[in-house]
Amino acid sequence: MRPLHRTPIRRALAGTAAALLLAGCGASVASDTTGTTSTASASSTSTVTASDATTVDDALADDVAVETGDTAYDEADATVVTLSGTSASSDSDAVTIADGTVTITAAGTYVLSGDLAGQVVINSAGDVRLVLDDATIASGTTSAVDVVDAQSVVVVLADGSTNALTDATTYDDTSDEAPTGALYSTADLTIGGSGSLTVTGNTNNGIVGKDGLVITGGTIEVTSVDDGIIGKDYLVLTDGTVTVDSTGDAVTSDNTEDAGAGFVLIEGGDLTVTTQDDGIKGVQVLVAGGTIAVAGSNEALEGSLIIVDDGDIELHSADDGVNVATSDDSAATDGQGGMGGEMAADTSLHLVINGGTLEVWSSGDGLDSNGDATITGGDITVYGPTTDGNGALDVNGTFEVTGGTLMAAGTSGMMVAPSTDSAQGWIAAALSTTAAAGSEVVIADDSGAQVATYTIAKDFTSVVFSSPDIEQDATYTVTVDGTPTEVTAGVAPAGGHGGPMGG
Q1: What is the mean pLDDT of the chain?
Q2: Of the candidates 486, 476, 394, 384, which has an alpha carbon nearest to the alpha carbon of residue 435?
Q3: How are beta strands 322-324 and 357-362 bridged, if at all?
Q4: Helix (H) and strand (E) counts for the chain?
């Protein structure tokens, strides 16, 4: 077998820096993030270090290296394993079969095909490439694939193949060392190729990488009763089509203990998730490309540091659409500044949007940061909540806009706008009555020339808009279904909340 090729995709995060975009309406707090450490309760064991990263590359520069396995292989050098019922056949001494369990004990490339009512175990000190070529593995007692030990593992979905992994509804072994997903790996795991894979997690999770997890290709569908896909140190998507339907978090990296770990990085591919919990969650959530659709979630994007450099993103959430909050659960600060409360900003938390297209549909806050928020580019549309208590925008610290286009519509009770000293102009309008979904918003300058026109898809009583066409201190008219409201750029309506609104 040719050695696995490991490439540091990038290096990320020196800790758990963060951004909680628009969470709790609090007082204005200066945004000095250099060398700051987020506050945690005495019971917390996580280490959260502030980061001043403003791009995905900057954030990754200090993080743990991503190890990506090579999916290419030579069929002539591969070991063939034919699965059949509760047994299998192979001419390799490194493959043993007993009681429905196929165990691989040496480094190499193994091509699996057929149906197995049992489990595949990898227990090798070397690098293992597992090629699934029309393989179906379903266990009645435990996980379908369990990587007990290996230097690294690459799961290759053979071209044109259809594969499935299903775990038991109840595991015989529920000890701390037992697997917790249909596809479970204690080693660095890469999944790629051009075939398809269906993963069903009947007891816990779908795919679990207890080290790092990288997806480089394939069509992957995961259904699970708990979390969908977990990469402990990192979860990276560079290509492929991934669909997750989960009860717990859909896509997550959950290492909150080690500096430089616990990040979700999306550089390409097509990701669609539906979940009853959080859609995409990590200490850092970093988006540099690809297409993301969170079709249903509690909170769609959550992390201490969220950076969007590029990509096409649509988020639907029962609570916050984008939530920048501490990864230290014991701190329990999220949302405590609501209803006009004075919650101080956590200067270790950051939301940065530099590009791409972002559309948010939220019943809670649309963009919510318990720290600072910065928009330098991109096209952002927020359809926020229809009841007071939350807002389309909610930033506890400094909310700076220097570029891009932002349209945020929601309720006016918790209305937040960019800081008054933002480099790019903005306007904020509180309407006298509720505008119905489908209402047209026309923004015109003092000469009557139209600056922007939007059709808002949900009921709303407030509009916040920023673009390069808005001149600070100039007068604009916001007309909703024929009713005009005159505003001055950079001036918040009376009754606005939060530091961004007033300065």
Answers
A1: 88
A2: 384
A3: unpaired
A4: 2, 41
